[in-house]
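Quick illustration, no need to memorize.
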Amino acid sequence: MRLHRILLACGMALSVNLALAAEVEVLHYWTSGGEAKSAAELKKIISGKGHTWKDFAVAGGGGDNAMTVLKSRVVSGNPPAAAQIKGPAIQEWAQEGVLANLDEVAKAEKWDTLLPGVVANVMKYKGAYVAAPVNVHRVNWVWANPEVLKKAGVAAMPTSYDEFFAAADKIKKAGFIAVAHGGQNWQDFTTFESVVLGVGGAKFYQDALVKLDPKAIDSATMKKSFETFRKIKGYTDSAAPGRDWNLATAMVMQGKAGFQFMGDWAKGEFIAAGKKPGKDFLCAAAPGTANAFTFNVDSFAMFKLKDAGAQQAQAALAAAIMSPDFQEVFNLNKGSIPVRLNMSMAKFDDCAKLSSKDFVATAKNGGLVPSVAHGMAIAPATEGAIKDLVSQFWNDDKISVDDGVKRLLAAARAKP
């Protein structure tokens, strides 16, 4: 009789586990080398929990293509369990009433104590978690090929724009491309926001590019930023327009170019190619930005699902994303750093250790600011308008610095 009850209990537990095991469909746009390896790690963890990962990868467009597909799925009443969404776009989806409340998972996993407030707020809507952060990318990096620098007679990574331009002149004179760049609006703005941060500092950056304060935009500091930005353009090559970011990274990797302004996903490409930091490539905060940190946090927003098993699988995904094991292995592959504040960085390289140290320090001193270029700071429509005008300025030397500032001011005033 006792054996019968034990068998019955085991059977009930098994049936419950089987009922709760479910498919979790995840929409993302991690398709390049380092990114694809990172997505595979999350799939492995979810599979280990008994759930089935359904990959919904949409390549291209820096996520724009993925968002187009996502909108059609949500409108048709068939959303994925999770989708790679970030920044103010999370709140826009939440306003539509289609995102799930993750507070139960967040409370159990103590997310409020593990995340800097400025990051946690991005993941919430009306005080409730609706998205899980995967990592932190630092955007304000400059990458370099040490052999190119050595051949050009550049002794160290530049810490100011005066030093940067002096180094760029030497690299150009030595017969190399000084700055590897891909002419797409988000790449142009990645460089522009690092310039604004380096020229004006974190408070000016916040006032001008996040708060869109007219006084900050229409200022001598912004004019100097535009002048510096245009000067950088002179060190890029004529084939830059339309080039993908990873191909620009490859130019540095292959010794064709000296520098690249790009977030630390570029490091993921170096690592995937077997390159060693400090030996095969160098990293440094963009000139003038050592005490600041522009963050780009990849995250997954969770959509409302009707099936109880699917909801359990979704909760398991959210918990897995913030787990120490995943945070470590994912970010080792991706080139980014863990979003958890209490993580050991023992297995990470010197670039990541510097990034983590600065992430913690700037979270306390006010230097931790959201990246506009990567959808972390302002409404998508305004962001798009500002990116476009900055790219127009980059591509057309006939647009004066004063006109560039006026156009930025007009786009900011038109904010929704």
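The chain is about 55% helix and 10% strand.
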